[in-house]
Amino acid sequence: MAAALANAPAGAASDSLAKVRSGRLRGRYMQGVHSFRGVPYGADTATRRFQPALQELPWRGVRDALAYGPAAPQGSKDDGPGSEDCLYLNVWTPALRDGKPRPILFYIHGGAYNNGSGSDPQYDGSALCRRGDVVVVTVNHRLNVFGYLYLAQLGDARFVDSGNVGQLDLIQALQWVREHAAEFGGDPNNITVFGQSGGGAKIATLMAMPAARGLFQRAWTMSGQQVTAAGPRAATQRARIAMDAVGARDVDALLALPADALLAATRARDPSRVESTSLYFGPVVDGGSLPVHPFWPQAPAQSAQIPMVIGNTHDETRAFLGNDPANFALSWETLPAKLEKEQFVDLLPSVVIAEYRRLYPHYTPSEVFFAATTAGRSWRGAVEELEARARQGAPTWAYQLDWGSPLDGGKLGAFHTLDIPLVFDNTRAEGSRTGEGADAQRMADVMSEALLAFARTGNPNHRGLPQWETYGLERRQTMVFDTTSKQVDDPRGGERRLYQQAPFVQRGTA
After folding, report:
1. Could you give the number of structural domains in the chain?
2. Annotated active-site positions, please?
3. Which of 222, 257, 282 is the last residue of a domain?
4. Hey, how many other C-beta atoms are within 10 angstroms of the C-beta on 322?
5. Which residues, 6 or more positions from 79, have their beta carbon under 8 angstroms from its beta carbon?
6. To the nearest 5 percent, what fractions of the chain are helix, strand and coil?
């Protein structure tokens, strides 16, 4: 059928059929790409709350895979209300069962460990399929209290893995993808995981999880790091806070709660995060599924041979803090108090401000604010991971996106998430903030080709880029993506040295 459908008129849509371990699937073929949405890779987790998921149940006949599956329960209105029956993935591919070993790109969504899904229009894999002859997969998995509530110290052996079941869902999805790679025209031995923000953090964590060994061969992270995970003491303390927040005296009471009532735990105050009221949920060093911190005190040994790209955007925090007009009207008098609250690093604001004024004498107070909060809270984890990989001698490339969005007068610059539609070549997708100009498309051409080259060869270099060297501690080589991209040694080195005066602590893991 794949060959016949490939000869259909370019604009025509028709059915695609695939056979997976639990039954047959009906997808859609359009403009050279087969898509299958809402494909189950695990069973409903409602009866396995806080435990590793079971395999999906088989079905009879042909199951429609034409619509996205539900996201995990969460507070986000965009992806809510969600369901505990959330283990679904989506596949885009140029061909089915043709024996061609295409690279597989497996995208893990952001939203920290709390929100999000694999169904955002910016994650549509069609453009990458057409551009690079690859298979693209996106995935939903358990989040927040459902995916990362650590109950192992409360006396019930069923929940020994509870602090990491959201990660174990991703591992189960990767196993499904490897098992079905040939059916969807892909190579089971060439899987690239890529993800932004929380997705990058989940990838960093997977790199230290024994059960993930061998399930992917390359890793590309964007503005998302996980240097340390929560320890069992801190994670147990948070579990007790969560139980108090929902009025549960024991684990059985947690199991009896409806999903929406359990979500109230995510709104409890976290005593370790004075700047935020939300309770942190994330991976836990539990001695089993995650035996070590992902990138502390060293990069994970099991992933030393995996090529990795670690990227960030120049103006990360303009995405979070740029929505407040007051942050664009700061004075030298009002800046210190705002910086004290938002930099998330225990350095005197006066010291930070003085150094920024020395480094960048032309910066306004607001420009110092956005630059310092980016360096203090969003970029430091990337530097930590890059240094750990360099000490390990692992093949690693660093990038920084300097090209800024032209929208809103360009005031948000190269903000957090801007690189998503660029690497997906989806600048015109709903939700993209790149604009639809020629510069945006040129950036998408350069960045998506780098991702595709990396997926094919384990090296992001391509003809549209100047030479991009691996990252080393002596020069700290970094590809700066801009209208004219170039490799720069140690960009923002002064900022890096300033913030390295304070020890790095991944927020939420203490």
Report:
1. 2
2. 197, 316, 416
3. 222
4. 19
5. 71, 111, 115, 116, 117, 119
6. 35, 15, 45
Q: How large is the average pLDDT for residues 286-294?
A: 97
Q: What is the pTM of this model?
A: 0.96
Cα dihedral sign for 84, 140, 111, 274?
positive
- Residue pair 455/424 in contact (Cβ under 8 Å)? The answer is no
Q: Within a domain: residue 27?
A: yes
DSSP E strands in 335-476: the ranges are: 396-401
Are the CB atoms for 400 and 480 separated by under 8 Å? Answer: yes
55 and 169 belong to one structural domain:
yes
pLDDT digits (tens, 9 = 90+) for 186-217: 999 999 999 999 999 999 999 999 999 999 99
Number of Cβ atoms within 10 Å of the Cβ of 396: 22
Strands (E) in 231-320, as ranges, are: 308-313
Handedness of CA 465, 295, 158, 80 (dihedral sign): negative
Q: Is 305 within the bounds of a domain?
A: no
Q: What is the mean pLDDT of the chain?
A: 95
Number of residues in the chain: 510
Q: pLDDT tens across 65-75, in order? A: 999 999 999 98
Residue partners of 469: CB distance under 8 A and separation at least 6: 397, 475, 477, 487
Q: Provide the 3-class DSSP secondary structure of residue 445.
A: helix
* Backbone Cα Rg of the chain: 22
Q: What 8-state DSSP symbol labels residue 469?
A: P
d(CA 235, CA 247): 18
The two most distant CA atoms of the chain are separated, in Å, by 69
- Per the structure, the complete domain to which residue 396 belongs is given by 311-499
Could you tell me if 316 and 223 are in contact, meaning their C-beta atoms sit under 8 angstroms apart? yes
pLDDT of residue 450: 98
